[in-house]
């Protein structure tokens, strides 16, 4: 967004009883404490307002003038500005006694604390001149009015049962007060049954809202995602059952207030699972494009996924954990241990098409950060690739498929790094949010010890792909077909594992002499939701939705990307 060119202001006001020089231009608000002088002829509150010839140059000059105790905040990170209530105790103390009626205004703004956590801080500026106070209030509010990316009216869905069942409490105590402070109006719906939000989004008037916010975990986000994408495709008359269809992007943004068990999507796009931080990103109107993968079985749509599509180990973990939901988040630890000890492997065929336009690779150690250059460059190259396809200049597109056959511990497609507090690097550390590609990770059959070594590397800084039994590819689409899949009548993928097990019992015993009752097929873990169909096709849709986020900010400025998508 282009900065608004307004006359810059400078005044001497007071903060916490100390005289400060306050400066404002179209991009930043800055203040610094004035050193005591022998000549006290200038009284606090005297206007030093002036129009500068170069408003844009004021920011740099101010930053050089600010001593170590100075403060400077971007206008884009001011939450709200309002007239402050006068504290009588403060009024009658110290040097304010000589004022007949002091005037003050409060600026609420974003302050960054450690580990990507944001907090809303407030500073109050005092002066004796009412006209001057009103002048500052008007100037600041005019600048905020030009922040057109900020939402004014939001639709909120709250899952009261997700995670530790504190979604409603989190929203009312931590999020709603911030929305009220920022002047955002809301319509709140507390969901009552599974897919309540998804179904409601097919009927609601979306034109009334500037964004949709879900309070809950990854499952709640998935509901909103499916409802919004499905509604947009329905309005555009696009058949989402067709795996080759070019889906229409969603203009309205989605916000996530984390209140679930893992909150993987929030962690990967913000850097922390903190309701206040996420609420502030929504208030500021941040926008982060996000790739979405569609999953089909032949000509039938199954699900959308934005983080993990996992078969084998992660599918078995989810299946086991669903039986112990009463344990809360601890169920994943129990399921993980049990699945690891079971050490199942599954035979099948993986076919994929590489994302040739992708600027990075899964092992280049380049993480997707706020303003990622790889996402921007890949998106540009994807557009050129699609134009070339349309013009017919790309030949033999169908011959680009590569095939992997064998027995697998896990087959995973990561659309983002899939980081979470327990795995800060994630399943694929170099996966990107908006590059139009996913990382396909194939873990071949191996010993328990080697598989444990692979899993442990998700929690440290070592390369989890640096094993002979692990391969990773950046793909635009892939297909998986289990060996024991039969589709004789063209209607049933045999999701009934009992029938499939009976048909192939002899071969199972041959393949697994130590366990004649081993599972024939696993299930797919699709963003934490079970998907029983095993033979599937996944396709990446570039930047299909936008979130109220800006990506994970780099804590090391020298390595931070200079551009935003």
Automatic annotation (TrEMBL):
<dbReference type="InterPro" id="IPR001206">
    <property type="entry name" value="Diacylglycerol_kinase_cat_dom"/>
</dbReference>
<keyword id="KW-0418">Kinase</keyword>
<keyword id="KW-0808">Transferase</keyword>
<dbReference type="GO" id="GO:0016020">
    <property type="term" value="C:membrane"/>
</dbReference>
<feature type="domain" description="DAGKc">
    <location>
        <begin position="149"/>
        <end position="299"/>
    </location>
</feature>
<dbReference type="GO" id="GO:0006672">
    <property type="term" value="P:ceramide metabolic process"/>
</dbReference>
<dbReference type="InterPro" id="IPR045363">
    <property type="entry name" value="CERK_C"/>
</dbReference>
<dbReference type="InterPro" id="IPR057465">
    <property type="entry name" value="CERK_PH"/>
</dbReference>
<dbReference type="GO" id="GO:0001729">
    <property type="term" value="F:ceramide kinase activity"/>
</dbReference>
<protein>
    <submittedName>
        <fullName>Ceramide kinase isoform X1</fullName>
    </submittedName>
</protein>
<dbReference type="InterPro" id="IPR050187">
    <property type="entry name" value="Lipid_Phosphate_FormReg"/>
</dbReference>
<dbReference type="InterPro" id="IPR016064">
    <property type="entry name" value="NAD/diacylglycerol_kinase_sf"/>
</dbReference>
<dbReference type="Pfam" id="PF00781">
    <property type="entry name" value="DAGK_cat"/>
</dbReference>
<dbReference type="InterPro" id="IPR017438">
    <property type="entry name" value="ATP-NAD_kinase_N"/>
</dbReference>
<dbReference type="Pfam" id="PF19280">
    <property type="entry name" value="CERK_C"/>
</dbReference>
<dbReference type="Pfam" id="PF25382">
    <property type="entry name" value="PH_CERK"/>
</dbReference>
């Amino acid at each position: 967004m282009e900065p608004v060119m307004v006359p810059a202001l400078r005044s001497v006001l007071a903060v916490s009883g100390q005289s400060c020089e306050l400066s404002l231009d179209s991009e930043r608000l800055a203040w610094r404490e004035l050193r005591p002088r022998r000549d006290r002829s200038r009284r606090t509150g005297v206007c030093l307002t002036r129009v500068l010839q170069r408003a844009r140059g004021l920011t740099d000059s101010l930053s050089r003038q600010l001593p170590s105790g100075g403060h400077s905040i971007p206008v884009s990170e001011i939450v709200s500005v309002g007239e402050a209530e006068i504290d009588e105790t403060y009024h009658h103390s110290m040097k304010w006694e000589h004022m007949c009626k002091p005037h003050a205004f409060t600026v609420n703004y974003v302050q960054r604390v450690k580990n990507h956590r944001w907090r809303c801080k407030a500073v109050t500026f005092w002066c004796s001149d009412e006209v001057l106070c009103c002048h500052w209030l008007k100037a600041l509010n005019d600048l905020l009015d030009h922040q057109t990316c900020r939402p004014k009216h939001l639709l909120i869905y709250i899952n009261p049962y997700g995670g530790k069942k504190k979604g409603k409490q989190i929203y009312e105590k931590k999020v709603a007060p911030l929305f009220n402070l920022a002047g955002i109006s809301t319509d709140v719906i507390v969901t009552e049954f599974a897919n309540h939000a998804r179904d409601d989004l097919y009927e609601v008037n979306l034109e009334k809202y500037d964004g949709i916010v879900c309070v809950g975990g990854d499952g709640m986000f998935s509901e909103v995602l499916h409802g919004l994408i499905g509604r947009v495709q329905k309005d555009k008359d696009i058949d989402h059952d067709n795996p080759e269809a070019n889906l229409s992007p969603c203009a309205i943004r989605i916000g996530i207030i984390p209140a679930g068990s893992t909150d993987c999507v929030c962690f990967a796009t913000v850097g922390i699972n903190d309701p206040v931080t996420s609420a502030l990103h929504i208030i500021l109107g941040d926008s982060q494009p996000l790739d979405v993968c569609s999953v089909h079985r032949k000509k039938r749509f199954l699900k959308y996924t934005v983080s993990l599509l996992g078969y084998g180990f992660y599918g078995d973990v989810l299946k086991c954990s669903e039986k112990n939901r009463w344990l809360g988040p601890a169920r994943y630890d129990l399921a993980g241990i049990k699945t690891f000890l079971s050490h199942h492997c599954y035979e099948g065929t993986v076919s994929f098409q590489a994302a040739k336009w992708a600027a990075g690779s899964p092992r280049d150690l380049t993480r997707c950060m706020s303003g990622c250059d790889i996402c921007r460059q890949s998106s540009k190259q994807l557009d050129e690739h699609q134009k070339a396809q349309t013009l017919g200049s790309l030949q033999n597109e169908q011959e680009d498929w590569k095939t992997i056959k064998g027995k697998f511990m896990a087959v995973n497609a990561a659309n983002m790094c899939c980081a979470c507090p327990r795995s800060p690097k994630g399943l694929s550390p170099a996966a990107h949010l908006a590059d139009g590609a996913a990382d396909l990770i194939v873990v071949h059959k191996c010993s328990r010890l080697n598989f444990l070594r692979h899993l442990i590397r998700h929690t440290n800084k070592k390369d989890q792909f640096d094993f002979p039994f692990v391969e990773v590819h950046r793909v635009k689409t892939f297909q998986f077909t289990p060996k024991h899949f039969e589709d004789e009548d063209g209607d049933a993928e045999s999701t009934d594992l009992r029938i499939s097990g009976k048909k192939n019992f002899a071969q199972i015993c041959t393949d697994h002499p130590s366990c004649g009752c081993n599972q024939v097929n696993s299930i797919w873990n699709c963003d934490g939701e079970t998907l029983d169909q095993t033979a599937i096709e996944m396709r990446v849709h570039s930047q299909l939705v936008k979130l109220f986020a800006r990506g994970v900010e780099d804590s090391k400025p020298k390595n931070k990307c200079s551009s935003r998508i």
